[in-house]
Design goal:
The protein has 125 residues and is an all-beta fold. It has no helices and 11 strands. Strands 2, 4, 5, 6, 9, 10 and 11 form a 7-stranded mixed β-sheet that branches. A 4-stranded antiparallel β-sheet has the order 1-3-8-7, with no helix packed on it.
């Protein structure tokens, strides 16, 4: 039974930092892509960053240079380090797992099989 559990969200001021974590359990494989998505109220879900098992990272244009995605295989945990946060970064953040790809991870949420429950990030100006 695969489970993804996010943590680390909160309310911060613009310019501050947060680190999100996503603990993965119940999945052991040599094939995976993982990603962070976010969704603000009334808006479509947006891909934030992806990481493949070969450590190739891809970022959305709006977070490039400010956010860093990483993973700790020993802890089965995915991270999202978010620096220089802006009010437009506000939203529910979800981690997701694609068990079909080893690389070429997609920013399309439909490619991902497993999702966490989300963690809220609120950035005030």
């Amino acid at each position: 039974n695969v489970q993804l559990v996010e943590s680390g969200g909160g309310s911060v001021q613009a310019g501050e930092s947060l680190t999100l974590s996503c603990a993965v359990s119940g999945y052991v494989s040599s094939s995976w892509c993982m990603a962070w998505f976010r969704q603000a109220p009334g808006q479509e879900r947006e891909g934030v960053a992806t990481i493949a098992m070969n450590a190739v990272r891809v970022y959305g244009d709006s977070v490039q240079g400010r956010f860093t995605i990483s993973q700790d295989g020993a802890k089965n945990t995915l991270y999202l380090q978010m620096n220089k946060l802006k009010p437009e970064d506000t939203g529910m953040y979800y981690c997701a797992l694609d068990v079909r790809r080893r690389w070429g991870c997609l920013m399309d949420g439909t490619a991902y099989t497993y999702w966490g429950q989300g963690t809220q990030v609120t950035v005030s100006s």
